[in-house]
Every structure is written in structure tokens, then in C-alpha cells.
């Protein structure tokens, strides 16, 4: 095994963008998607890094994403802004509307962005970090594929339904969390199945709704939410707010739409809320960011880790030393560059 | 032990309101506080029912709540409305601003209500249920007293930080959850201490941050959040959004303000978000409430219980048969009626 080769953020981004353009994606969309994929790799979020390239190319090859979709913004001047991704990837739609969302939140105190009809593959921390960089608190959520049972149930109705939150910090990386409301990722159960090892208790139930540690039974049954009935309630909220409320797919319909298979990325909507702490705090005379620091530094002072700390440390290292790619990763990158979508058949 | 005596909702509300008025609370505020206390009793939420009367009278006797405070609304016509409780109870402030919040959410798509400087004792489901009755989705949260350690830590920095969500359902009670982000309530640990029984694992850590099942060690140490690091992240979000962002107390400062004792109700702010599904869904052509029903009825159809179901069942029974009060509860009610605040010394 050879040592990994470091590559700079900008160089890797340019290469990934070029792959998407080769595969027929319009340059602005290719740039947006490349940005989030390479940001994941930079932050050592391998599950949301260049590993995602193949999945993105597969939906392109399957014709399940519109590579030329131009995000359309619908803005009636209220606190809700909509952007229609037009069956394209979610990220170009978010970037197309982000500045308008931030400006509206600063003007009105808070604002919401509805992303319609998008293919979703990226972590939500991108969205909330981008808004935190504008001084805004942000909450982002979306449904996914229905593989998770509600507390007390056995049939999968809920998605892994991620939820992310960002809070600006002065002169530092923001406070950011981003997690699935399921206990584990479906991919983790799949890894246990391949390895022939049991999954931890509490991850899943079998078809009859009984707790199981057998990965096969878990995949045939349903995953569970984190935090028992409380996590189940939060996951249900994500379905309602970012599915039903937007008139977009909830996780069950998203799965049905793809023929019951999770082989391709899910198509649904997403909801992003942006809140301006300066507007909310104004009458108090207090500085909300300085107040927030009292809590966040006290959490760190007792040795507890803040969410995203590891990610930010990996980022600092990657920006200094380059993003380390293995020989296999580099070889795949070169194959995609050379063959485009045809690499999928190779 | 005699059978409980049933009393009608209206009769009990009138008696509780009259007790508050006897104790010097202005009639509008007495009515608002009586409404939520008796609603708790009606729903068999004993911990938020007439049990709360004594705590309310204690803060009145201690001069820590302003009984004559008149909520002041500050509205700049944006998506954020503020109501200053002026050191009074939170409920009169919420009711004073609720209709304006609902109208603003319908006009703009979503709106936020900031409640400032209030004494808080009631469950949050009142607020989100009231907004769901107006056809709105709602999210409500507030800090409390710092008795909960962040994940990986040992010092209490977080409150039990409740979070509530409401979603309107056609022709039925709304979808409502309302829970503390701590695993358990502090009162439950206190009950174990009095009974001399161990607390379940995962509820608390001792002063050194080690897991403990000893209620004494738990009370001297710190409680834990539900859902490990995910619950801890959500609790931190509640501190930031409903404390720091508003320029109001977070849970640590609320506890310090009361001299480190939780004997009296906490003073802080609260945040309520209201979202109009009809605005969010409009361009989709779908009915968001009907879409939500697909999920909610499917959860029920597999035998899983929706949050608040037990509460709604208790409510239906109480409205039909009356609210059952024990002889001891009736005797205390009569003592408060006869003696007002002097009953506390008796």
C-alpha cells in the first residue's frame, strides 16, 4: 500500500468539476456539486467525499437527474423563498438562492428557503455553514428513503431524515451539527452484512418488529431512530416540515418513485431556515454571538467535544497539507476523467 | 381513600383563576395562567396541572414575578414579533401576541415570536396546539435551569430544554410532541432519592462525570440529555436559539439569577416559530395537510402510538366525565381559595 498523495482543494475541485462537465452537467451546476463533494473529502467525511462521484454519475447515466436544469427562483417578497431545482442536483439550487435567503433573513429577521424537486446526495452542513458565514443561524432538513420505523412500529415509513444546525461564532469555525435521525446509516448495516458481523442492539427491528442484531433481518425489517420515541418524533417532524409542508415527496413516496430501490439518489425537496441573531437580540442590548460563546467555550473547557470539531480539524490539516487521496481513489478519478459515464460500465 | 370527585373544566378554571386574582394577579393574566394549568390537569399531565399552583404562588409570595405585568408587544412589521412579559408569567404574554403571530405567519409564510423576560412553568404544547388550531405548524422551545451536562462533559451547562412541535390535522387533534431534551426530569431523580431506589443507567453522571445510578450522586453531578451526542446537540441548539439569540438568559444564567436554587420557577425567554403549510405548499398544487395524513395515519395503522395520544384520550374523557380531583387536591384548592398566599405558611 502506497502513501496517499496530497492534492490541493482547488486542484481537486477543478478536476471533479471537469468530470461533471464531461458528463454533460452545465458548468454552474458542475461547480456547485464539485464544491460540496470536495468539501466533504477535505473535511475527512469520506462518506460524503469523492466516494459520492460514482453515485452522482449513476443517476446521470440513468437519466434520473437533469444535468442541464437551471434553478428557478420564485420570490413573492415574503419570508418564504422557493427555488425549483427542476430535477437537477440540490446544491446548484441552494447556491442560486443562498444570497437572497440571507438578505431576506437580515431584512425580516428570519426567512425560509424551499428547494423543490431536487436530487439530494450531500451533507446538510454545507448549507448551514454557508449561512453561518453570513452571520446567520440556520436549520436545514430533508426526507430521504423510507427505511426507518417509527417508535413502537415495524414498517419503514421514515427516512434517515438528516437535520443540521449552524450558529455563527466570532473569529472561529461555526457551531454546526448535522446528523441522521436514524441510529445508524443504512450503509453501516450493509457493511456488517458483508463482514458477517452482528449489528449493535437498538439499530433495527426485523419484519415482525422485534429487535434484531442480524444485519440481514435488519435490512429486511426496519432501522430505528436515535433517542427512542423522542428521536422518532423529530424524524416525523422532518417528514412533515420538509416533505408534506412543501408539497414534495416524503420518504415513502421518494422510495416508491424510484421503484422501491435505494440504488439511486432520492428525489425530494428540502427546507432551510435562516435566522438573524442580530435582529432577534436587538432590543435586548446584548450581543447574541458573544452570549453564545459563553456556552460554547464552557462546553469546550470541560473537555467535551463540540459537534464538527473533528471535521474542522481535518479541514485545517487538508488546507495546509493537501487532501490525501489513495492510489485507488486517484485511479478512479483518472478513469472518470478519461471515460466519463462510460467508466461506469468498465 | 375516597373516590376522586369530577369537576368540569370551566368550573375548575374559574376557581383557579379566582385563586390567582386573590393573590393579586391581574384578571387577564390570571385567566391565561388558569387556562394552561387546568388544561394540564384535564389532559392528565399531573406534573403540569394544579400541582403547579403552589409553585406559582411561591414565586408570587417571593416577589419574583410581577403579578400586574401587562405584556407589551413590539412589532416592526417584520417576520419577528416580540412580546415583553415584563417579569410576569409567560402565558399571558403568549396569548397577548398569539393572534398577531398567526396572522403574520399567514401573511409572510412564517413568523417568529420572541417572549422576553417571563417566568416559565407551563408545558409548551399549549403554544403549539393553539397555533395548530389556526392551521399552522409550530415549533416552540425555551431554556430552563442548568442541571444537564453536554455529551462527554460533567458540568451542568444545559437546561432540561423542552422542545415542542405541532402540526394541524384535519378534523382531529393535531400532531403534537413536547419533551425535555434531558433523559429524565429532575423531579424523577428526586423521587428516586426519597424512595431510596437507584435511577436507571444513562440518566446522569456524578461530579467526576462518571455514569451513576445513585440519585444523590446524580443530583450533585449532572443529568444527561436523551439520544447521547445528538440529543446534546439539540439541547445546545435550544440554548442558542431561545437564549443567546434572543439576548435572554441561557440556563446557566437563569440558575445563577435565582441564586443557584431551583426552588422557584426560572426566568428567561422563549421562542415560538409559526409556519403556514398553505403558503409553503401553494406552488406544488398539493394539500399539505392531506399529505401529512398519509404519514400520520400509516404510523397509527401499524399500531405505533403518536405522541400526545394518551393526553388527547385523557382530555376527551375529562371533557365528558369531568376532571377527577382527589380529596387532598380539593382540600388544597379550598385552602388556597380561603387563604391565598397565606396558605403557603399554613
From TrEMBL, chains A, B:
<dbReference type="InterPro" id="IPR043144">
    <property type="entry name" value="Mal/L-sulf/L-lact_DH-like_ah"/>
</dbReference>
<dbReference type="Pfam" id="PF02615">
    <property type="entry name" value="Ldh_2"/>
</dbReference>
<protein>
    <submittedName>
        <fullName>Oxidoreductase</fullName>
    </submittedName>
</protein>
<keyword id="KW-0560">Oxidoreductase</keyword>
<dbReference type="InterPro" id="IPR043143">
    <property type="entry name" value="Mal/L-sulf/L-lact_DH-like_NADP"/>
</dbReference>
<comment type="similarity">
    <text>Belongs to the LDH2/MDH2 oxidoreductase family.</text>
</comment>
<dbReference type="InterPro" id="IPR003767">
    <property type="entry name" value="Malate/L-lactate_DH-like"/>
</dbReference>
<dbReference type="InterPro" id="IPR036111">
    <property type="entry name" value="Mal/L-sulfo/L-lacto_DH-like_sf"/>
</dbReference>
<dbReference type="GO" id="GO:0016491">
    <property type="term" value="F:oxidoreductase activity"/>
</dbReference>
